[in-house]
Prior knowledge:
The protein is 17% helix and 17% strand. By secondary structure, the chain is of the alpha+beta class.
Amino acid sequence: MLYANHSCEPNVAIDLSSADSANWHVRALKDIAAGSPITWFYPSTEWEMVQPFKCECGAKGCLGFIQGAKHLRRGVVERGWINPWIEELINEREKM
C-alpha cells in the first residue's frame, strides 16, 4: 500500500476489520484498468490525520481537504467501505 494514494472516489477499500492481520485485505470497489493507480479513501481508516492535506484527486465529489473521519458527516465517510472502529467512533460522536 506504500504506492496507493487517497481519492475521494477510490477504486479499492482497505479492510482492516479483523483482529488477525493475516486476514486484512484490499478489495476492489470497481473494475480497475491495467496501469491505473490504486486509490483508497483515507477517512475509511483514519479518524484524525496526523498530517491533513489539500486533496487534489480531481473526483467530482472531492472533499478538498482531508483531515480524517472525525471531521466528516457519517454519509460522507460511508461512501464505500468503512472500517468498524471508524463506525464506532462516529456512533459515539453522534450520541453527544
